[in-house]
Please model this.
Amino acid sequence: MTKERVQPNETVVPLLHCTSPEETLAFWRALDFAVTWEQTRPYLWLAFRWSGFELNYRAAPDGVDPSAEKTGGALVMVDAVAPYHAAFAEAMRRGYGRVLAKGRPRIGRLRPGASRFTVTDPSGNIIVFIQRNEPNIEYGGAKELAGLARVLDNARILREFKNDDRAAFRALDSGLRRRGEAASPVEQALALAALIELSVALDEEERAPEWGARLRALPLSAAERDQVTLSVADQTLLTPWLPARDPR
Model:
């Protein structure tokens, strides 16, 4: 008799904790996910499908706090992240009238060239969409960089890979104070733009005018201005501060 062998064709479906079935159903439906199973008794089980992947939910243990955002999560490996982000953002606009960027649920920022973004559900689960050929990262910033350039790279890693806006904010604020004077105008501008964007995300916008005034005063070429504008996900945040293009 021929022995059956393990075949490399497994399918893995993430099983996540759910603290609110109603909110979970409403959220994923708003993002155009199909509900393939909906059960609340005798026990909770929800199943969703979108494109080629699925998410399943069961009841969270007593005492789970969604605000801690440590409930669970999943990684979704894709060829390119931008189409996924665009599809979810558009679905949010239709379902909620805006892109949900704060609180729970929400979608993370996606700046040009970024290789991952997150979707946080109402229960605090974090679904990370990652580009398959994502480059390796170096925590602390790339070693070949120095000064404010390395601080900027470290802040990018903290935001995009650790989902830690607070740590990125602190790194940029400290780095700009310590290394800003020796940095080029465009490096200073990139740090100021990131601080403005992070201050909005963290609901600490009181210093944004200070950083904006410094950003406006920097001598940037048209190409450098475009580089700084494209470094943030919501480019309208910089509209009051960036200088007008040089018509020459």
